[in-house]
Predict the 3D structure of the following.
Amino acid sequence: MSPCLAAGDEVLVRAQDHAEPGQIVVAHHPYKPSFMVKRVEDIDERGYYDLRGDNPSESTDSRSLGMIPKEKLIGVVTSRFKAVGTKHIC
Amino acid sequence: MFEKMIQSLGTAQVAEAHCDGPCGIYDPASARIAAEAAVSMTKKILDLTPPDPSDAKAFASYNNTLSRYVAIKEEQAHLAKTELLVLWTDYFKPQHLEDYPNLHDTFWKAAKLCSSVKVEVSAEHAAELMTAIEEIHKIFWATKGRDIAWYTAG
């Protein structure tokens, strides 16, 4: 999620099962028991989310994971706490 | 104070931004090393001189050596292909394809050459494989914005 988020940043998440394009969300990974943080690119007519990383050349996101159902959403990122020594542009 | 307040809510979970393997370490060098081994075995097989078949001991030794060379060539050529496929499918992203439109063709041909080197004893295809991996090395490091010189161990 560079340059908006850097490794080690902490975020606050408001728990909800919907989000708007442009918002950063935390969601369950569709294939692994882990969480991922991505930005909502789009939402299709079925309510599935196209989640993308801000750094397209490095991110593994809906381009390879596919559309993410809303049941996987944990919530919307509302605040960011920068990790020490990191740079952010956004 | 705010941090303590948050900590009092419990331990926060980790959310990954990169969802591949956790290490994220890729380098075409692993494919290059395996390919070099397969290329070396190809040369060694071609350089072998068959002994007089009536010399049982020499014949056994020749067969043993040839078998080992063939086995290692098979194994390393397959490993080179696996390393290339991982790099191709896991590291490279659609963004890279925009910058390097021949990316898929380059990898496809390199993977095909691994198969050729595995199946055949062809010095020509072995040399072509090294050239293909050198090309991938250049593209890979260009995507990282780093100037890493190509080199071989052999």
